[in-house]
Every structure is written in C-alpha cells, then in structure tokens.
C-alpha cells in the first residue's frame, strides 16, 4: 500500500498541487467510481489526509460507498470551475481498503472535531476507506503549453509537455 508520505516523497509536485487545490475548494473533490452496471458515477467528497493515510469517508448509506464496496477502484479529481486551469488540477487513482479499526475511527472523528468543529465522535462508520494510490497526474498551464505531470509508484514523476 502506498502511504501518503511515500506518495509525497515520490511525487512532490503532484502532491503539492493536489493539496493546494484541495484546500482552495474547502477540501472538496470529485470521486469517480463504478456503478453496479459498470457505468461511471461522479460524486462530491471531502477526502482527508490523516495519520499518513488518504481517507475517503463520509455520509453513511451513499451510493459512492456502495460502489467502492463492490469495486474498490476510484479516481479522485480536484474540483475546479476555472476552464483555463490557471491554478492547475490534479487526479489521483487507486483502490480502497475498508479499515475497520474503531480506535482509528475515534481519532479521526476527534481530529475532525478539533479542526472543523464537526462532531461525529462516538458515531459508527459504515465504511472507512483508505486509499492505496496506484497513479496520479496534474495539468498546469505554462505560457503557451500544458505541462502534464504523471506518477506511478516507484517510478517518480515524469512531465509531458503539450504544445
């Protein structure tokens, strides 16, 4: 499993751009999953980096979590409304594992309360998905071209220039 710190070591520019865009939108991202019939689903989510894990948790009984329970593959895209992508955007790809550790859940809920005042302490998580990143990419506009940076575990970052 690729931890968050491994990802940031191997893909420093991608992880920095992801975090910058993630914070700029109030932590909002768009999550791509696969429905039962194989068609795609896009859903809003607020992923959180917690204890060296990228956590995909949220409101219980939602279709996106049903999708992940059935097929753990996902794509996570930083939300943007800028058609010129002037601040860049990032995509993370991977699979999830449901972590049933209630002690981790309790620490996560406490951190949410401490950081945002959002109180889910003592509540049981239906799913507490941890991302195992299998790839990532960013798009950034530079002068008259695009720089697309891609990453795969163990391979570092590679920049592709599109004129």
TrEMBL record:
Keywords: Oxidoreductase. It comes from the Bacteria. Pfam families: PNPOx_N. Residues 27-108 form the Pyridoxamine 5'-phosphate oxidase N-terminal domain. InterPro entries: F420H2_bilvrd_red/Heme_oxyg (IPR052019), Pyridox_Oxase_N (IPR011576), Split_barrel_FMN-bd (IPR012349). Gene3D superfamilies: Electron Transport, Fmn-binding Protein, Chain A. The keyword DNA damage does not apply. The keyword Signal does not apply. This is Pyridoxamine 5'-phosphate oxidase N-terminal domain-containing protein.
């Amino acid at each position: 499993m690729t931890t968050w710190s491994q990802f940031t070591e191997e893909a420093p520019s991608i992880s920095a751009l992801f975090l910058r865009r993630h914070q700029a939108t109030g932590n909002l991202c768009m999550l791509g999953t696969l429905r039962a019939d194989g068609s795609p689903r896009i859903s809003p989510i607020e992923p959180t980096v917690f204890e060296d894990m990228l956590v995909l948790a949220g409101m219980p009984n939602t279709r996106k979590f049903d999708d992940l329970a059935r097929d753990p593959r996902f794509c996570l895209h930083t939300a943007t409304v800028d058609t010129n992508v002037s601040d860049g955007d990032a995509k993370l790809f991977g699979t999830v594992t449901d972590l049933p550790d209630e002690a981790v859940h309790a620490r996560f809920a406490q951190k949410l309360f401490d950081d945002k005042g959002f109180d889910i302490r003592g509540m049981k998580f239906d799913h507490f998905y941890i991302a195992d990143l299998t790839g990532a990419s960013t798009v950034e506009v530079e002068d008259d071209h695009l720089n697309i940076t891609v990453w795969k575990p163990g391979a570092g970052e590679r920049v592709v220039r599109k004129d």
